[in-house]
Amino acid sequence: MELSSKEKGDQGEALVLDLAARSYLSHWCFPNPRDEDGDRKEIADLLIWLNDVLILISIKNYEFNGDHEKYHRKTVEKAVRQIQGAERKLLHSGRDIAVLHPTRGRVVICSSTIKQVIRLIINLGEGEEYYEAGRETSKDRFISILDRDTIETAFEELDTIRDLVGYFVAREGMFRSLEKTMIAGREKDLLAVYMQNARQMPDVTGYAAAAFDIEGAWEGFKSHPQKIARDKDNEESFFVDELVSRELLQLKNGSEIAEPLMLLSRLERRAFAKAFFEKYEEFGSTVSLAIADSVLHLKRYQTIGGVGFTFLFYQKKYEGAKIPHLLQIAMYGHAINDGFAAKSLWAIATDEEVSRFYFCYDPNPSGLPVEGVDAIRHDLALLGWNMNLKTSSVNLTEFPDVDTYNEL
Question: Is 166:194 a contact under the CB 8 Å cutoff?
Fold first, then answer.
């Protein structure tokens, strides 16, 4: 039985709210945003904005009933116009657009910061026999077209902004390069191929057309021991997600401090958590051997995704106003030693019971004045820090036993 217009609308609204409620996106998701300072018309069904990434989503609910021509002619065209209108308003209206967020309230989207735009059309209707992978507009913009099953799978598997954007950029690149593509299988089978191929689409260089028989690839991928092991290894990485939701987003300026973490991929979050807990365990062992009255600090610096992360651990009995200052010294001290190679600096301090966190963030450390550098060097000398620094590198692979995995 065909759904009524209201039922179709309710389904679309439910998907918008479901996607917006994802823990790693909720703070940066804007369901049914309106131009608050303009015509107050709805801009898109769902808008996601984090740092320099903008994702525009249009949701349609078309029951095919064998009439694909009508779908491509009317429903897709309407969605394309909606996304084009949203992009014009947000990026080319000559002003920054204010929208409302369910918990943050009024947020102004700064068009000058946006460098990457992902455009998605999602159709909820059933009975689809074939579909367009995407549309190229007259202004050479690419809009990906997906079904509900695909988008829900993608948001679950690619559960960071970096991972999600990476897939759609690679997908767009492949479909743009081909005049004709035939796929035996579903869209999430293509996602499985992408994941198995070191997050790259099949190489179609030099081909005008391509055919892929990938049916069943997703089932094979999700049940493979290497993926199961990967998911187990990733459990530690969700420390980053929890740190953002439970600690950072509770702070007045928490959104800004949280962005460097939210822009990390899942593998980079795993690297962050691994480095943090390795140093925490070392700190715990050292505390148990320490003299009761000694002041004890332990720190570590790690560059991940172009950001210099500093971890500082201190004994809880020395809790006080000096900890944030020490955290700044540690953060800038490592940056000075590293020649300000990192594009931004981020630091965290906590005690042996992980009972309180302090944070520090500088998006432009190279702007530190000479007198500031001299003051940090002076404090480092007083503390005896950075006297015998050891440098090492860590290479993490997404899937355990990659060689075996790639033979599949």
Answer: no
In angstroms, the CA 311 to CA 298 distance is: 8
Token pair 């593509």: residue: 181
| Pair 365, 372: CB distance under 8 Å | no
Query: pTM score, two decimals?
Result: 0.90
The DSSP element (H or E) to which 68 belongs, if any, is: helix 68-70
- CA distances to 277, 300, 329, 348 from 385, in Å: 21, 11, 9, 17
Same domain, 64 and 136: yes
Contacts of 74 (CB under 8 A, 6+ apart): none
- Asked if residue 351 and residue 242 are part of one domain, the reply reads yes
Residues 242, 311, single domain; the answer is yes
pLDDT tens digits, residue range 108-160? Answer: 999 999 999 999 998 876 655 566 789 998 889 999 998 888 888 999 999 99
Residue 364 belongs to domain spanning:
237-383
First to last CA, the chain: 42
